[in-house]
Amino acid sequence: MTTLRMFAAVLIALSGLAAAQEPPKPAAEAETKPPPKPPAEAKAPVLQIEKSDKPADCVIKPVMTDDELRACGARIAK
User: In a 3-state reduction of DSSP, which class is residue 67?
Assistant: First the structure.
């Protein structure tokens, strides 16, 4: 009877050991996943340069033309 118990214990141990070991996956199955895509780059908005309708800034100089004086807000008599 003891031999029968030992034989049953060995069979149970071997069946548990066999179930715990998974067969290795073939390399073809492991490689079937496509590589991850890189994140999409955010496109920066295109900057546009617009000509300003605003007159040039006033720069005070010792000698100024009529146009430069008008840019500074002077009223010139005609």
Answer: helix
